[in-house]
Amino acid sequence: MKLVRKAVFPVAGLGTRFLPATKAMPKEMLPVVDRPLIQHVVDEAREAGIEHFIFVTGRNKAVIEDHFDRQVELETTLLERQKQKALDLLRHDLPEPGTTSFTRQQEPLGLGHAVWCARELIGHEPFALLLPDVLVQHERGCLAQMIDAAREVDQRSNIVAVEEVPRERVDQYGVVGVGAAKGKVFSITSMVEKPTQGRAPSNLILTGRYILQPEILDLLARQDRGTGGEIQLTDAMIALARTQPFYGLKFDGRSFDCGSKIGFLAANVSYALARPDIAPGFRSEIKKILAELNGG
Ligand code: G1P
Questions:
Q1: Please, what are the domains in the chain?
Q2: 83 CA → ligand 1 middle, Å
Q3: 279-293 vs 261-273: helix axis angle to the nearest 10?
């Protein structure tokens, strides 16, 4: 039996930090090298064995649905022009027919509300949640690492990916307090959404990857608005942690917060430098730019 079969991708956000690029295009379609952010995250879920991909979308997000469909005209043209490699790549990236579902978050009421909007599609089984703003670069994807960890500690547990950030940045994230450690896995003792530095239980933040038990959905249905006037997933997780085991995994790899411009640009540099077909040329371009900036 698989530990987690379904993954939820909340993609309803407005992307105001990337205007004007995101005026007519969802932020999840911004490319990191030549793949949209959402494709990178779906790839991570597929690598972890996910079989059903649930997207919580909003208005103006239809191209995400198109992206995960066949583009017959394009395929025909590629075939005629004998561009087999490009064609193979398109086919490889596409989830199996019938394994994607799309639902809408009708109002921007927060991450907790977005997850709750997927309740009928999730059903009564554990699920993964991946925030497409965050990319984790490592030879073994973050979600696959989490599933490995869950198998070792407790199959019926909740597990979240955590990482350290400098203290002055804790107010941008959900922050966890941790107890006893078993290798890279910690039991979680507290959680706070976007605390001030003084109220943060540690400098370990929620990275945007979760494996949650379905009882979170009942809690979300009753959850009051929290930080920022939004229905916060973190608040429902605090309630769930009172009745179920909850762990944090310090994953291997480097994360990029692609919701910020610097994080997004850094992801592009790092992913390009990891691509054998691009790295040599790109490296020499970067060297030239830096040399010119430094006066020759
Ligand atoms: C969300 C979560 C937060 C988490 C962050 C990771 O915040 O609410 O707990 O640390 O994602 O990127 P958002 O970035 O949507 O404000």
A1: 6-259 (3.90.550.10)
A2: 40
A3: 130
